[in-house]
Predict the 3D structure of the following.
Amino acid sequence: MHRYYGIQKIICNFTLFYDQVKKMRLYFAPVQGHTDAAYRHFHALHYGHINPNAKNDTDLISSGSDNVIYTTPFIRLEKEEIRKKESKDLISDLNRGLEVVPQVIFKNEHELRRLIEILDSEGHKHIDLNMGCPFPLQTSRGRGAATIANEECHLAVSNIVNEYGNIHFSVKIRLGYDKEEYIPLIENLNSLKLDYITVHPRTAKDQYTGPLHIEAFEDIYKRSKNPIIYNGDIKTPEEAMEIFTKYSDLGGLMIGRGALARPSIFREIISGEEWDSERRRHELLFFHKELLNYYKESLIGGEHQVLSKILPFWEYSEEEIGRKAWKAIKKSSNMSKYLTALTLI
Ligand SMILES: Cc1cc2nc3c(=O)[nH]c(=O)nc-3n(C[C@H](O)[C@H](O)[C@H](O)COP(=O)(O)O)c2cc1C
């Protein structure tokens, strides 16, 4: 009874706010180790976020809000170049027909400039700047969330955005490193024309858990002259609707772990129809089997390598598929055990 009411309510909300939803863009968050080219491709193909006829960016953009925008996990500089694995991911044919935004992480103007120079020479027209990553390996080197309060990095961003007028830029931020320190950054970004700023309302110290700092998000939403994308803890279409309803001037919504667990979430939001759990599980299995087949064909290291690629994709799915199946998948030590574990879904 309660669930039925929930569905009715969401459909009613969708009818009311459908035009508003249509104006907003939906973004699949970059998740290192998960959202690689194959994952993006099969996700888009399976859940209908691909424009198979797109020949260029204009086609993709004009196809509008049916498409999800994918940001790549961060790309960093190593010996003055982009690492081979990341380059391969970016130029992969699997990106065809998808709106993919490369994201860079940097600690100073030199790194940022070199990364943009390379991506510009490869023809990328939109680049996302990571100013929020909380991984200690990056922050201890001055990258990601360590750039939020670094005025030299603010200046570097201004210089690069102003210099590369041919490229669209967006910035992905947190609130600060161990406390809220975003105000000077937002003021600096207000002097630039960005496509959007994605805000995950936590500090780096919070990592990915604990309460979201919603007041700080609202402060940024009010202060920013650039469009704001909300990002944090969205797991259901209903939660997405609540955000849309509450912040009508939002540029869009980015979903990470919630979309890895429930990859249909964007399709459900776009169509205004919440899928029941049976349909979600059925499609999820189908999608994961497509991924498995792809990795079986493309990875040369055998079963073990395929499993080590595929198992992390289930990391955030416990609620979606149930504890029993989730634990069995996690414990699968060979392909046969993995396939048996899938039957528990
Ligand atoms: C394992 C992991 C890897 C991530 N990798 C990146 C990354 O490469 N770049 C980035 O901007 N954010 C990264 N994020 C952060 C997500 O993009 C997102 O901001 C965060 O998970 C909050 O959104 P969610 O609650 O919808 O998952 C990562 C998050 C996780 C959990």
Residues 2-23 form the longest helix (22 residues). The pocket of flavin mononucleotide is lined by residues 29-33, 73-74, 103, 130, 133, 172, 200, 208, 231-234, 255-258 (CB under 6 Å). The chain has two domains: 2-271, 277-342. Residues 1-8 have pLDDT under 50 and may be disordered.
